[in-house]
Amino acid sequence: MILSGEEIRSRIGNQIVVEPFEESKLNPNSCNLSLHDELLVYEEVVLDVRQPNRYRRLEIPAEGMVLQPGCLYLGRTSEWTETRGLVPMIEGRSSLGRLGLFVHVTTGFGDAGFCGYWTLEMYTVQPIRIYPGIDICQIMYHEVRGDIEEYCSKYQNSRDIQPSMMYRELGCVENDQQLELDFESLVREAIS
Ligand SMILES: Nc1ccn([C@H]2C[C@H](O)[C@@H](COP(=O)(O)OP(=O)(O)OP(=O)(O)O)O2)c(=O)n1
């Protein structure tokens, strides 16, 4: 069963945390979440599920940024969410779907107990200009039958855009969590 907007509101501060929460973002059975102002783009010709992959961090300026087809942009919600005893899910918004923008790659499904910013896996059918702060997706909540063992795995308490940590399951021991590419110093080195 999916919670109504009214029910979401009544559970805020109890089973549901959406921070910051704005009542105006409630829908009949979901709550809109907005886009933070940063994106990560992988800097690998071939991504490797067994290794941390290098990426670049981009800031979405107030005047917007054009996303190009064929590229995966990891973003995150501005809202921190916590969900207890319910299964949270994020989905796209029809208004953005009608412009050909996807906000996740088959992974809208969350876990009961998940706390953190949601990482968005954005890609687009056509070039599209996006802006920081736009309502990018919606979160909804399912009631669960049966006991719940709440989520406490690798994406718990995500405080940033979180690239894939699949490599952890596959035995890669890494010191650095992810390899952020310092593109500006590389360019400086290359031209000096
Ligand atoms: N687009 C998404 C989808 C999920 N999540 C968060 C909420 C989920 O509770 C958590 C874990 O999602 P999955 O269970 O789908 O992830 P994995 O199975 O890959 O990882 P784990 O082994 O940690 O469960 O990640 C997210 O931030 N952004």
How far is the first residue's CA from the last residue's CA? 61 Å
How many beta strands in the DSSP annotation? Answer: 12
- The first-level CATH class is given as Mainly Beta
Characterize the biggest β-sheet: 4 strands, antiparallel
Number of helices: 4
Q: Kindly provide the radius of gyration, computed on alpha-carbon positions and rounded to a whole number of angstroms.
A: 18 Å
How much of the sequence lies in strands comes to 25-35%
Determine the CATH topology: Deoxyuridine 5'-Triphosphate Nucleotidohydrolase, Chain A
Q: How many domains? A: 1
Unreliable stretches? none
EC number: 3.5.4.30
Keywords: Hydrolase, Nucleotide metabolism, Nucleotide-binding
Family: Belongs to the dCTP deaminase family.
Enzyme class: hydrolase
Notes on the protein architecture:
- There is one protein chain.
- The chain has 192 residues and is mainly beta.
- The chain has a single domain, classed as Deoxyuridine 5'-Triphosphate Nucleotidohydrolase, Chain A (Distorted Sandwich).
- It is 12% helix and 34% strand.
- The chain has a 4-stranded antiparallel sheet, with no helix packed on it. Strands 2-11-7 form a 3-stranded antiparallel sheet.
- The longest helix has 9 residues, at 183-191.
- The radius of gyration is 18 Å and the shape is globular.
- It starts with a helix and ends with a helix.
- It binds 2'-deoxycytidine-5'-triphosphate.
- The site of 2'-deoxycytidine-5'-triphosphate has 14 residues, from strand 9.
